[in-house]
Every structure is written in C-alpha cells, then in structure tokens.
Design a protein that fits this description.
alpha+beta; 4-stranded mixed sheet; 24 helices; 9 strands; 8% strand
Amino acid sequence: MNELPTLPATHVCEQARLSRDARFDGLFFTAVASTGIYCRPVCPAPAPKRENVRYYANAAAAEAAGFRPCLRCRPELAPGNEQWQRGDHVVARALKLIEAGALAEQSLDALAARVGIGARQLRRLFVERIGAPPVSVHTTRRLLFAKQLLTETALPVTEVALASGFRSLRRFNAAFAQANRIAPRELRRQPRAAAGAALVLRLGYRPPYDFAGVLAFLRTRALPGAEQVDEGSYARVFGPANAPGWLRLSAWPGGEHALQLQLHCPQPTQLLGVVTTLRRMFDLDANPQAIADTFRRDAVLGPLLARHPGLRLPGGWDGFEIAVRAILGQQISVAAARTLATRTVQRWGEPLPAAPLPGLERLFPTPAALAQADLREIGLTTTRAATISGMAQALLDGRVDFSAEQSLDAFVARWVALPGIGEWTAHYIAMRALSDPDAFPAADLILRREAAPDAAPLSTKALTEHADAWRPWRAYAVIHLWRGASEAPSPARRKKPEATA
C-alpha cells in the first residue's frame, strides 16, 4: 500500500511563502492566527509574522481548523495536489471518488464500502492523514467552487448553489456564510460577467506548464465535428443533444499561471463536473517539480526534460471515446486512427439541432450506439469492429468501467480480459482516460526505440525493467519519448546510425 504524501517541511513552506514561489501553489496553505484567514503561498498580501503562521496540507484542513479563505489570493484558484490521489492507499482512492462526485450522490457509508472499509475507520483515516473528515473535504471543494462562480460570473445565486452541488438554497447560504463569514450575495457586489453570456473562469496550474505541447498532442488527434484545436485553444461540444454545451480553453491573458475557460453550460449541475474533467484532461494539478526530480538524472529523459520542463500528460474528455480511439489506433499511425475516428463520429455520432460553435455539430457516439453498429462500414476489419462493439457492450454490462478508485493493475487486468485488447491498449486507455501517471504501454515500438542506448530497440521486457526507475511517473516518460521522437533528432540520436554502419 503506497504511503500518502505529507506537508512539506516547515522550512520549505516558510521559504516558499516568503518568496511567493508559484511552484508550491496548492501544495500547502498558510493560515494566520491573528486574522483567522488562510492563503495560498503566492498571496500578495504583506507577509505575516512567523509566530502567527500555521501550515496546512489542504484547504479542507485549514477550514476544519476554523480559518476562512482569503479574498485577495482566493484559495479556490489554487491548483489541486494530485499526489494525495495517487497510489492504492484507501484515502487516496476515497479522494479520487470524492473528486468524481461520489459524496454528491452517495452516503459516507457507501463511499467507505467502495474502498473496502467502514465509515468510522475512513473518517478516522481522513482526520489523521488529511486533517479533515471526508464530508468536510467534499463540502470545502463545493464551497470554493461556489466562491469562484460568485466572484467571476453573474450566475444567479440559486444556480451557483446547484452548480456547486447544493440542492437547497438555504443549506448553501448557511454553509457558505459559516465558511466565509460572509453571505453569498455580499460577495457579489460587482459581477464581472454579463448575465446570459458564456462564463469565463480561471483554471490555475503550477508552473512550468507547456500548454502549447498539450495542444499539439491533442491537435493531431482532434475529431472534426466534435472538437477543434488550433495553435492557441481547445474547443468542444458536449451533451445532451437537446441542450448542448460548449467550451473553449486558452491561455489566460497577461501570463498568469492559469488557463481561461469560456463555458456555456445550460445545466448548472454539470458545471463542477466539466471543470473537474478539464483539470484532469489538461493535467492542471500535476506537480512538475516531483516529476523533474525523478527524470533529471536519467540519461534519456534528462535532456528531454531540459527541452520541455512543463510537459504534461494530455488526457481525454471521455473514457469511452478514448477506449474507442485506442482500439482504432492499434498498429496504425495516429493520422490513420484519426481518419477512422472521424468516420465513426460522422456515421454514428448524434447530430445537434444547431451548432453552438462553427464546425462543432456532433457528439461522440454512445456505447449503446456502437455496441449495435456494424463498424465494418467505415473500413474496419471484422475482428477490429467486433473488438469495439464488444468493448461497448462490456461497458454497458459493467464488466469494465472507468471508476476512479480502481488500481492500475486491476484496471489493466479487467480490460485485457476483453477480446482484442492487450496490454498496450489497456495501458494507453489508463494513461489518457484515467490520467494514471504510471500507466506504461511498454510494447510501443517508438518507446522501445527512443529509450534504447543504441540503434536496436529494447525488448518489451527490457524497457519495462528500465522504466522501473521512472515510477511513479512512467506515463510522463511516455509523453516525453513520443515528443522526442516527433522532433528533429538530437546529436546523440544522429550518431546511432553511424555507430551501426
């Protein structure tokens, strides 16, 4: 069982706070006993006296101790700390489920049952390791999102309550006032967006962040009709078809460590889920320092890291969509797989009554649609078509899923049990649908070639053994190696053919 991370050492927190080091944003929070407020380490307010400072590993712990969020640095804009959700520890698995909205729909008893322990024990572990019980973690997450919506949009307070997961306006008002010492309506005296317009939200990250690199990866795989990727933004439509939403993600103007999300979402209850999906898809909660510490001294990855220090793990919008595209991409080029995926969308994707954005007029097909489809119509072999239809039916039957609490090994074992799906495909799906940082499709020829010390590619077994040194960030190694292969070869790479001549 993997150990959970801990709060950075006090001297590290102190130095980061005094220097306002953005690399530590979201990795801890600073609470000030004399004011009763907690802040991000990048807060621009004058630094408080050391004797008044308390450090907390997360916002929920600070609020559980009685502190309220700062109105100046706005803790709701801090990137998350994905390290708390990494590994197989029951707390990490429970945190993943809370992030996926489990406590919005289920009781604490049901959450505890999903991770295999009792509710009392889960609560004790959370208080001991996180500093706050599961329900407090869930509530803090919702209230911080509500605070962002109140500050940055003109959504009615009733819709803000729904968007942040509260079914009762009275309960929302009471919870918000208790946490922030201010009523929701008092926070919104000068709304920044016109009512009825698309919402504009900031999605923060820790630098460095190679947004251009993520866009380049997604651009070569973009599906016309469902998504658009240009040099500076990602856009997509999402369902349901009778009330579709749309979004566009781009860099925040002025160089702030954030992305700008333009979002039109007809159903307020979808808002938090959309933002959570985008944070995962664009890997906004990664800690590049921790990844760099693992790769920096590696003979292969060190030079790649130096060229692209902010490279992230590009995820996917939907697990089923990624699974279909992974199967389509077996043993063919990215361009060929994209052509087949585009045909799939055009043939079985649900058309929208009106395109919310030019060129975006279809939703990706559902599992029910492809389970019954004859995919040979788009040029697939009988075997490949059967693999996709069988996988879609397996999802409908519950034999496989994308649930957040399962380990990488358990996920891979269930998926490779399906006909036509091997280790490469299962790990690729885990890498992009679950954003598992340690997923590793070791049989990939490009990886075996790029990681080789000479011209001959490594065997799958040899690469797997070599990649043990890259844990728990093997998926990031994959992205670095794929990007390195797509760029002009380095001098070291150019010597390989000469050595074998």
